[in-house]
Amino acid sequence: MNFHIMTLFPEMITQGLSASIMGRASEKGLISVNAVNIRDFSADQKHHKVDDYTYGGGAGMLMQAQPIYDCYQDIRKKIDESGAASHRVIYVTPQGQVFNQKMAAELAAESDLVFLCGHYEGVDERVLDEIVTDYISIGDYVLTGGELPAMVMIDAIARLVPGVLNNNESASTESHSNYLLEYPQYSRPEEWMGKKVPEILLSGDHKKVDEWRLEQSIERTRLRRPELYEKWLLENPPKPPKKKRKKND
Ligand code: SAH
Question: How far is the CA of 122 from the centre of ligand 1 (A)?
Answer without folding.
Answer: 6
